[in-house]
Amino acid sequence: MFTMKLRKVSAAAAAALVLSITATACGGGNGDNEGGSGSGGGDKIKIGIKYDQPGLGLKEPDGSFSGFDVDVATYVAKELGYDADQIEFVETKTPDRENALKRGDVKFIAATYSITDERKKSVDFAGPYLLAHQDLLVTTDSDITEATDLNGKNLCSVTGSTSAQNVRDDFAPKANLAEKSGYSECLAALQNGTVDALTTDDSILAGYAAQEQYKGKFKLAGLKLSNENYGIGVQKGDTETLNKINAALEKMVKEKAWDKAVQDNFGPANYKNEPAPKIGVIVK
Protein backbone atom coordinates (compact mmCIF):
# COMPACT_ATOMS: atom_id res chain seq x y z
CA MET A 1 0.00 0.00 0.00
CA PHE A 2 2.79 2.35 0.99
CA THR A 3 4.74 1.45 -2.18
CA MET A 4 1.77 2.19 -4.45
CA LYS A 5 1.22 5.61 -2.89
CA LEU A 6 4.90 6.44 -3.25
CA ARG A 7 4.84 5.54 -6.93
CA LYS A 8 1.77 7.70 -7.51
CA VAL A 9 3.37 10.69 -5.79
CA SER A 10 6.57 10.22 -7.80
CA ALA A 11 4.65 10.04 -11.06
CA ALA A 12 2.72 13.18 -10.17
CA ALA A 13 5.90 15.04 -9.28
CA ALA A 14 7.53 13.99 -12.55
CA ALA A 15 4.52 15.19 -14.54
CA ALA A 16 4.59 18.54 -12.73
CA LEU A 17 8.29 18.90 -13.49
CA VAL A 18 7.70 18.26 -17.20
CA LEU A 19 4.88 20.82 -17.28
CA SER A 20 7.07 23.36 -15.51
CA ILE A 21 9.91 22.90 -17.99
CA THR A 22 7.53 23.11 -20.96
CA ALA A 23 5.91 26.29 -19.66
CA THR A 24 9.30 27.89 -19.11
CA ALA A 25 10.40 27.05 -22.66
CA CYS A 26 7.19 28.44 -24.13
CA GLY A 27 7.43 31.57 -21.99
CA GLY A 28 10.76 32.42 -23.58
CA GLY A 29 8.89 33.36 -26.75
CA ASN A 30 8.00 36.74 -25.25
CA GLY A 31 11.47 37.95 -26.16
CA ASP A 32 10.39 38.10 -29.80
CA ASN A 33 8.38 41.22 -29.14
CA GLU A 34 10.11 42.62 -26.08
CA GLY A 35 11.34 46.18 -26.14
CA GLY A 36 12.74 46.64 -22.67
CA SER A 37 16.29 46.24 -21.44
CA GLY A 38 19.08 44.31 -23.09
CA SER A 39 18.32 41.64 -25.62
CA GLY A 40 20.67 38.95 -26.84
CA GLY A 41 20.20 35.24 -27.15
CA GLY A 42 18.51 35.67 -30.51
CA ASP A 43 15.64 37.83 -29.21
CA LYS A 44 14.12 40.22 -31.70
CA ILE A 45 11.98 43.32 -31.54
CA LYS A 46 9.15 43.90 -33.99
CA ILE A 47 8.68 47.50 -35.12
CA GLY A 48 5.89 48.80 -37.31
CA ILE A 49 6.86 51.04 -40.24
CA LYS A 50 5.56 51.97 -43.67
CA TYR A 51 6.97 50.11 -46.66
CA ASP A 52 6.02 52.57 -49.41
CA GLN A 53 7.12 56.03 -48.26
CA PRO A 54 10.45 57.15 -49.78
CA GLY A 55 12.48 59.26 -47.38
CA LEU A 56 10.51 57.96 -44.39
CA GLY A 57 9.80 54.25 -44.50
CA LEU A 58 10.67 52.31 -47.63
CA LYS A 59 11.40 48.66 -48.33
CA GLU A 60 14.14 48.62 -50.93
CA PRO A 61 14.28 46.05 -53.77
CA ASP A 62 17.08 44.19 -51.97
CA GLY A 63 14.92 43.77 -48.85
CA SER A 64 16.65 46.45 -46.78
CA PHE A 65 14.85 49.46 -45.29
CA SER A 66 15.51 53.18 -45.54
CA GLY A 67 14.02 56.47 -44.42
CA PHE A 68 13.82 58.88 -41.51
CA ASP A 69 11.32 56.76 -39.56
CA VAL A 70 13.57 53.74 -40.07
CA ASP A 71 16.60 55.64 -38.76
CA VAL A 72 14.64 56.88 -35.73
CA ALA A 73 13.26 53.39 -35.01
CA THR A 74 16.73 51.84 -35.33
CA TYR A 75 18.22 54.38 -32.93
CA VAL A 76 15.42 53.84 -30.41
CA ALA A 77 15.74 50.06 -30.65
CA LYS A 78 19.48 50.35 -29.97
CA GLU A 79 18.72 52.34 -26.82
CA LEU A 80 16.28 49.60 -25.79
CA GLY A 81 19.06 47.04 -26.12
CA TYR A 82 18.70 45.70 -29.67
CA ASP A 83 21.23 45.60 -32.46
CA ALA A 84 20.19 46.29 -36.04
CA ASP A 85 20.14 42.59 -36.91
CA GLN A 86 17.66 41.96 -34.08
CA ILE A 87 15.05 44.30 -35.55
CA GLU A 88 12.15 42.90 -37.55
CA PHE A 89 10.39 45.67 -39.45
CA VAL A 90 6.70 44.91 -39.93
CA GLU A 91 4.56 46.71 -42.50
CA THR A 92 1.78 48.63 -40.75
CA LYS A 93 -0.52 50.43 -43.14
CA THR A 94 -2.44 53.47 -41.93
CA PRO A 95 -5.82 51.77 -41.23
CA ASP A 96 -4.19 48.93 -39.22
CA ARG A 97 -1.82 50.79 -36.91
CA GLU A 98 -4.06 50.83 -33.82
CA ASN A 99 -5.01 47.18 -34.26
CA ALA A 100 -1.38 46.12 -34.71
CA LEU A 101 -0.57 47.58 -31.30
CA LYS A 102 -3.66 46.16 -29.63
CA ARG A 103 -2.90 42.68 -30.98
CA GLY A 104 0.72 42.93 -29.88
CA ASP A 105 1.98 42.38 -33.43
CA VAL A 106 4.67 45.01 -32.85
CA LYS A 107 6.35 46.62 -29.85
CA PHE A 108 6.08 50.13 -31.23
CA ILE A 109 5.21 51.94 -34.45
CA ALA A 110 7.21 54.68 -36.21
CA ALA A 111 5.21 55.26 -39.37
CA THR A 112 4.36 58.94 -39.93
CA TYR A 113 1.92 58.46 -37.05
CA SER A 114 0.34 61.85 -36.29
CA ILE A 115 -0.65 62.33 -32.65
CA THR A 116 -4.37 63.14 -32.37
CA ASP A 117 -6.81 63.23 -29.46
CA GLU A 118 -8.87 60.50 -31.11
CA ARG A 119 -5.92 58.15 -31.52
CA LYS A 120 -4.76 58.77 -27.94
CA LYS A 121 -7.93 57.04 -26.76
CA SER A 122 -6.49 53.70 -27.88
CA VAL A 123 -2.74 54.33 -28.27
CA ASP A 124 -0.01 55.96 -26.15
CA PHE A 125 2.47 58.16 -28.00
CA ALA A 126 6.12 58.89 -27.33
CA GLY A 127 7.52 62.08 -28.82
CA PRO A 128 6.76 63.93 -30.96
CA TYR A 129 9.93 63.43 -32.99
CA LEU A 130 9.03 65.44 -36.12
CA LEU A 131 6.71 68.32 -36.91
CA ALA A 132 5.38 68.11 -40.47
CA HIS A 133 2.66 70.06 -42.28
CA GLN A 134 -0.09 68.89 -44.56
CA ASP A 135 0.42 69.92 -48.18
CA LEU A 136 -0.63 69.01 -51.71
CA LEU A 137 1.37 67.22 -54.38
CA VAL A 138 0.33 68.19 -57.91
CA THR A 139 1.73 67.88 -61.41
CA THR A 140 4.20 70.56 -62.44
CA ASP A 141 1.70 72.05 -64.91
CA SER A 142 -1.18 72.11 -62.41
CA ASP A 143 -3.13 75.31 -61.77
CA ILE A 144 -3.88 74.31 -58.18
CA THR A 145 -2.21 76.82 -55.88
CA GLU A 146 -4.63 76.90 -52.93
CA ALA A 147 -6.59 74.23 -51.14
CA THR A 148 -9.86 75.88 -52.20
CA ASP A 149 -8.92 75.12 -55.81
CA LEU A 150 -9.76 71.49 -55.06
CA ASN A 151 -13.51 72.12 -55.09
CA GLY A 152 -14.91 70.03 -57.92
CA LYS A 153 -11.57 68.28 -58.45
CA ASN A 154 -10.40 64.77 -57.54
CA LEU A 155 -8.33 64.47 -54.40
CA CYS A 156 -6.49 61.31 -53.36
CA SER A 157 -5.42 60.16 -49.92
CA VAL A 158 -5.02 56.94 -47.95
CA THR A 159 -7.85 55.20 -46.13
CA GLY A 160 -7.73 56.10 -42.44
CA SER A 161 -5.59 59.21 -42.95
CA THR A 162 -6.70 62.52 -41.44
CA SER A 163 -5.38 64.56 -44.37
CA ALA A 164 -8.23 64.31 -46.86
CA GLN A 165 -10.85 64.95 -44.18
CA ASN A 166 -8.97 68.08 -43.11
CA VAL A 167 -9.20 69.43 -46.66
CA ARG A 168 -12.90 68.66 -47.02
CA ASP A 169 -13.81 70.01 -43.60
CA ASP A 170 -11.79 73.22 -43.71
CA PHE A 171 -11.01 74.18 -47.31
CA ALA A 172 -12.75 72.31 -50.12
CA PRO A 173 -16.03 70.64 -49.12
CA LYS A 174 -16.84 69.90 -52.77
CA ALA A 175 -13.63 68.00 -53.47
CA ASN A 176 -14.17 64.47 -54.76
CA LEU A 177 -12.30 62.10 -52.50
CA ALA A 178 -10.58 58.98 -53.79
CA GLU A 179 -9.22 56.77 -51.01
CA LYS A 180 -6.49 54.22 -51.70
CA SER A 181 -4.79 51.61 -49.53
CA GLY A 182 -1.34 53.20 -49.96
CA TYR A 183 0.30 56.43 -51.11
CA SER A 184 1.98 54.69 -54.04
CA GLU A 185 -1.49 54.01 -55.46
CA CYS A 186 -2.38 57.69 -55.10
CA LEU A 187 0.86 58.62 -56.84
CA ALA A 188 0.01 56.35 -59.78
CA ALA A 189 -3.45 57.95 -60.00
CA LEU A 190 -1.89 61.42 -60.00
CA GLN A 191 0.55 60.42 -62.71
CA ASN A 192 -2.13 59.02 -65.02
CA GLY A 193 -4.50 61.95 -64.42
CA THR A 194 -7.18 60.03 -62.53
CA VAL A 195 -6.81 62.49 -59.64
CA ASP A 196 -5.75 66.13 -59.57
CA ALA A 197 -3.86 66.17 -56.29
CA LEU A 198 -2.47 63.95 -53.56
CA THR A 199 -2.65 65.24 -50.02
CA THR A 200 -0.70 64.18 -46.99
CA ASP A 201 2.22 65.51 -44.99
CA ASP A 202 4.88 67.56 -46.76
CA SER A 203 7.59 65.20 -45.49
CA ILE A 204 5.95 62.28 -47.27
CA LEU A 205 5.28 64.25 -50.44
CA ALA A 206 8.86 65.52 -50.58
CA GLY A 207 10.11 61.95 -50.49
CA TYR A 208 8.00 61.01 -53.48
CA ALA A 209 8.82 64.13 -55.47
CA ALA A 210 12.54 63.49 -54.98
CA GLN A 211 12.47 60.00 -56.47
CA GLU A 212 14.52 59.73 -59.64
CA GLN A 213 11.64 58.50 -61.81
CA TYR A 214 9.41 61.39 -60.74
CA LYS A 215 11.85 64.29 -60.90
CA GLY A 216 10.33 67.18 -62.81
CA LYS A 217 6.85 65.64 -62.89
CA PHE A 218 5.45 66.74 -59.53
CA LYS A 219 5.71 69.69 -57.19
CA LEU A 220 4.56 70.62 -53.71
CA ALA A 221 1.99 73.39 -53.55
CA GLY A 222 3.85 74.82 -50.55
CA LEU A 223 0.83 75.04 -48.24
CA LYS A 224 0.80 74.50 -44.48
CA LEU A 225 -2.72 73.20 -44.06
CA SER A 226 -2.14 71.61 -40.66
CA ASN A 227 0.47 70.71 -38.09
CA GLU A 228 1.29 67.01 -37.94
CA ASN A 229 3.15 65.94 -34.81
CA TYR A 230 4.72 62.54 -35.52
CA GLY A 231 4.79 60.27 -32.51
CA ILE A 232 5.90 56.71 -31.82
CA GLY A 233 2.87 54.61 -30.98
CA VAL A 234 2.99 52.04 -28.19
CA GLN A 235 0.35 49.81 -26.68
CA LYS A 236 -2.03 51.67 -24.38
CA GLY A 237 -0.78 51.52 -20.81
CA ASP A 238 2.80 50.49 -21.66
CA THR A 239 4.32 53.34 -19.65
CA GLU A 240 7.70 51.63 -19.24
CA THR A 241 8.32 51.41 -22.98
CA LEU A 242 6.92 54.90 -23.49
CA ASN A 243 9.37 56.45 -21.05
CA LYS A 244 12.32 54.56 -22.52
CA ILE A 245 11.47 55.70 -26.04
CA ASN A 246 11.13 59.33 -24.93
CA ALA A 247 14.56 59.14 -23.29
CA ALA A 248 16.00 57.64 -26.49
CA LEU A 249 14.50 60.43 -28.63
CA GLU A 250 15.93 63.11 -26.35
CA LYS A 251 19.35 61.48 -26.59
CA MET A 252 19.08 61.25 -30.38
CA VAL A 253 18.50 65.00 -30.62
CA LYS A 254 21.24 65.82 -28.11
CA GLU A 255 23.80 63.71 -29.97
CA LYS A 256 22.85 65.36 -33.30
CA ALA A 257 21.90 61.96 -34.71
CA TRP A 258 18.46 63.44 -35.35
CA ASP A 259 19.93 66.20 -37.53
CA LYS A 260 21.97 63.67 -39.48
CA ALA A 261 18.88 61.53 -40.11
CA VAL A 262 16.98 64.56 -41.39
CA GLN A 263 19.80 65.54 -43.75
CA ASP A 264 20.36 62.00 -45.00
CA ASN A 265 16.70 61.41 -45.84
CA PHE A 266 15.21 64.82 -46.68
CA GLY A 267 18.25 66.75 -47.89
CA PRO A 268 18.05 65.51 -51.50
CA ALA A 269 14.47 66.84 -51.75
CA ASN A 270 15.46 70.25 -50.34
CA TYR A 271 12.84 69.75 -47.65
CA LYS A 272 12.56 72.65 -45.20
CA ASN A 273 12.10 70.84 -41.94
CA GLU A 274 11.10 72.32 -38.60
CA PRO A 275 13.55 72.08 -35.67
CA ALA A 276 13.37 68.96 -33.53
CA PRO A 277 10.24 69.22 -31.36
CA LYS A 278 10.38 68.95 -27.58
CA ILE A 279 9.08 65.73 -26.04
CA GLY A 280 5.48 66.11 -24.96
CA VAL A 281 4.94 69.46 -26.73
CA ILE A 282 2.20 69.22 -29.35
CA VAL A 283 1.93 72.07 -31.85
CA LYS A 284 -1.72 72.70 -32.65
TrEMBL record:
Q: Which Pfam families match?
A: SBP_bac_3 (PF00497)
One of its GO biological process terms is:
amino acid transport
InterPro entries per record: Bact_solute-bind_prot3 (IPR051455), SBP_3_CS (IPR018313), Solute-binding_3/MltF_N (IPR001638)
Sequence similarity: Belongs to the bacterial solute-binding protein 3 family.
Source organism of the structure: Streptomyces curacoi
Question: Does Acetylation appear among the keywords?
Answer: no
Q: One GO CC term of this entry?
A: outer membrane-bounded periplasmic space
Record's signal peptide: 1-25
Every Solute-binding protein family 3/N-terminal domain range: 44-269
Q: Does the keyword Signal apply?
A: yes
Q: Which domain of life is it from?
A: Bacteria
Q: Protein name, please?
A: Glutamate-binding protein
Keywords, alphabetical: Signal, Transport
